[in-house]
Design goal:
- The chain is of the alpha+beta class and about 180 residues long.
- It is built from 5 helices and 8 strands, in the order ββαααβββαβαββ.
- An 8-stranded mixed beta sheet has the order 1-2-3-4-5-6-8-7, sandwiched between helices.
- A hairpin with a 2-residue loop joins strand 1 (about 1-5) and strand 2.
- Helix 1 packs across helix 3 and helix 4 crosses helix 5 (about 135-140).
- The radius of gyration is 16 Å and the shape is globular.
- About 30% of the residues are buried.
């Protein structure tokens, strides 16, 4: 995978990303807005595991966001199965020094059409903690629509929190 966008490129993770990954991912503010699959603290061991994990995927579904020749975050999908096989969960994160620059929005805008086509998807879903309006705005700018609030849907950082459900839906595809 290699998708260029206005700030950089979305590409496969590689061994040389480990130092950037540890430096940026070891941030409580990032962990707080992701599922618990994303560890905190984020150590070199976690980076080693992650790089090996994505390298071993038969079909890669998680990629690095690169700006100025550095991996500054991640973006990807978690494809569904069975009756939901035409759907996937969409997610991303950026290192805090890169927040507020339009990078996540530009990366999502560039990647969404490509993954919809590549994976034969009709629907992408993204769940955002209610305390994260910046991520909601990223999704809205990338063409996702707010579908509703899932009340008291998650327990994160010792808090029972609402999640806002966003979806990107291909309306013009017949199955």
């Amino acid at each position: 995978m290699r998708t260029e966008f206005e700030h950089g490129v979305i590409r496969d993770w590689s061994e040389h990303d480990k130092a950037d990954l540890v430096a940026l991912a070891n941030n409580r503010k990032i962990w707080r807005n992701l599922t618990d699959r994303f560890p905190h603290p984020y150590t070199e061991r976690d980076a080693n595991w992650w790089i090996a994990h994505v390298a071993g995927m038969p079909v890669r579904t998680s990629w690095a966001i690169e700006v100025d020749s550095r991996a500054i975050g991640g973006i990807g999908i978690d494809p569904r199965e069975g009756i939901y096989a035409r759907s996937a969960e969409f997610g991303y994160w950026l290192g805090e020094p890169y927040w507020g620059r339009g990078i996540a929005t530009a990366a999502a805008r560039a990647l969404v059409p490509e993954i919809m086509s590549r994976f034969g998807l009709i629907r992408l879903e993204a769940r955002v903690f209610a305390w994260n309006p910046a991520s909601m705005r990223v999704l809205e700018k990338a063409g996702f629509k707010r579908e509703g609030v899932m009340r008291r849907a998650a327990f994160k950082d010792g808090v029972l929190i609402d999640q806002v459900l966003y979806a990107y839906v291909e309306e013009n595809i017949d199955v």
